[in-house]
Model the fold of this input.
Amino acid sequence: MASAQVFNITLPALPEGWSADKDFKAVGSVSAATQRNLEPVGPHFLAHARRKRHQRTFSEDER
Amino acid sequence: MSDESNSVPAEAPERFAIGISFGNSSSSIARISPEGKAEVIANEEGDRQIPSVLSYIEGEEYHGTQAKAQLIRNPKNTVAYFRDYLGKNYKSIDATPCHQSAHPVQVDSTVAFSIRDTASEDVNTVTVSEITTRHLRRLKQSAADFIGKEVNAAVITVPTDFHDAQREALIAAAKEAGIEVLQLIHEPVAAVMAYDARPEATVADKLVVVADLGGTRSDVAVIACRGGMYTILATAHDYELGGASLDQIIIDHFAKEFIKKHKVDPRENERGLAKLKLEGEATRKALSLGTNASLSIESLTDGIDFSSTINRTRYELLSSKVFAQFTDLIQQVIKKAELDVLDIDEVIFSGGASHTPKIAHLARNIFPEKTAILAPSTLITALNPSELAARGAAVQASLIQEFDKEDIEQSIHPMVTATPHLRNAIGVQFVSGEDVDFQPLLNAETALPARRTAQYSVPKAGGSVFVRVCEGVREIKVTKPEPKPKAEKASDAEEDDSDFDSDEDEEEEIRETVWKTDKAIAELAVKDVKAGGKVELMVHVNSDLGLQITVREVGGQSAVRGAVESPKPTEN
Ligand SMILES: Nc1ncnc2c1ncn2[C@@H]1O[C@H](COP(=O)(O)OP(=O)(O)OP(=O)(O)O)[C@@H](O)[C@H]1O
Ligand SMILES: [Mg+2]
Done:
């Protein structure tokens, strides 16, 4: 997996009064996905196919 | 530990695979060189673009350029422009490209050609499948001769609109030629791969338009590249637009010149027309590099020799309408993908007609400056458009050459390729003062599951920071310039050509893409980050749209983690 991208952007300070259990709060969900066909070519697709067929996660795959 | 594992299986011969691009006009063969670079192989005549033509004289088979030359003397026994007939019903084909070569005939419901392909006088009916087999056999032999090794497998490129019957017919025809088709891949995706396989390429998310401008047809596609994976978002085709449309302009131009001088139309004579077409194509190709090109034909018609020249400016003027059709097709596919020219990161020009400088220049004017136009006339480092498909096929061939047949079949099965893609980008919202900004981390059209990691700065003094993970949508912001004050206008008008200029200036609006934060998904806090520190965010999106999010101070001990549940199915 590609390493971290580095953005030259400054995160805002924590707003006054914000608090959450374990500092994490889920506030919404992701919009419904679009079903599309991946083109079955290239090394990254082959890695994707390997994970999908063997039901492995990214981190299991990296081991 | 069994006996078998120690003994080499005797049966299966070693597999050696190449990449093949198979067009109606020309074909190419490619391999990965011992240095690991994709390279297109020249056949014994030195051609890397091998005309997809077979011709028969006294039972002898000619292929490629030699066969194409026979379109003048021996058109009836010369088969050309047949790729798109493969696997098709006779009733559904367009026979126009074969007007000047062996005509397609109906056999059962499929397509064949009646040719004298043996030493005898008999005319045989040879199916398009058999013609394809013979063509592929010649390509395979050329590759084997160059490499010095038997070639028995290939990845072959096909257009994006090739349907199952066409695919099956191609695989069967290749098998007859002794070629195991490891995989058929889409031409525009092969073109992107050719670029992405270069050692200097990096894996970057990008939206690419591939404009494959061929001989008899042109095909365009918008492809999302996400984490090194490719998804076609839209395609458009023009089955009557290609190099042949430009040949026609050259033919007509010289024919008119000839008529003026000699009062006969060389196009009315079959052989004259064939000569004009063959030589005219060479002249047109020469205009891709030079500013002038000549044409010289012996005995064009009625025994009259003809020679003339044409300059590029003239040619471009005559072709402006046809050139516009190419750029229209590009704009059409972007619209079909519901995108804007501002969204496109790269335009890859592929196919032989993409050498035409003016077409790439016209595209340059349509796209914003940040869009890379990858064509010989707009970028010195551009790859040869005629070689992209074959190179991409060779790259894929090298990747899967060692795989079992079953392994390949499973990997390309719709169970694996059908994949949910993100509708919107997911990223982080930044608020500073009045400004709300959004920085995408996962782009729209990313195939799932996906995982991305990014690092961000914190305020100079450090402290606790806020990470708001949101969906973002890009919008097109249009800024109309302020109308010019009257005085300035008046002074403008005094200049010679200002009338036209100032009008244009006024019309010109500024269009740019801006991010809008759409909906918030999760909020996280990273407490007490040290001054000058950095924060790392990892977002993992499952196939069911559930998220795992982790943030931590880079180099810090503890991380903040949480999960966002996938949306309820009823929401869909
Ligand atoms: N240098 C060049 N300049 C201009 N046109 C060129 C050049 N080289 C090749 N062509 C044109 O490209 C066309 C062939 O393109 P290509 O080899 O990509 O075709 P193809 O995919 O086999 O064709 P088709 O569209 O018929 O399936 C021909 O019309 C040829 O004249
Ligand atoms: Mg083509």
